[in-house]
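Q: Make up one entry.
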Amino acid sequence: MGYSGGIFVAKAERPAPIGELGVLVEKSFPGGWHELQLDGFPESSALREVVAATGAPALMAVVLDSDMAHVQALSPAGVGWAAYLHPGNAEAFGAPPLPHSPDEIVELATTWSAEAGLHADRDAVRAALTAKNTFAEETFTDLLTGLGITG
């Protein structure tokens, strides 16, 4: 059985309004970026709240049994995007279609990254969006690296 819960990444000490949710894992990245892996699922409004509170771009991944993740990103300027990691598994779980094509997601993700002051690698972002790792969390780490958030 894999991990199910939310993961936040933001440029803030405590990136998520986690309420009653416990923190399972905390990571720090260069440039003031932090990741919190939560014991449970955050409220749907949490990403907007994090961006408003920090004034910086942020990402949220909702992971289901380590099989897939629904990633959402948002910036203060309103650049937003969403993607499924392990999209075949997402489809099997009955996830609805995304509003953007894979090419559009890569473009939006690199724009988001630039607004965050990062340097995205388009090929690495594209590779993460189509990767078939064992755990969605591994693929999320690959996506972070592609976006320029590295440890």
Summary: Residues 74 and 80 are 4 Å apart (CA to CA). The chain has a mean pLDDT of 92. The helical segments are 46-54, 87-92, 102-115, 122-130, 136-147. The two ends are 27 Å apart (CA to CA).
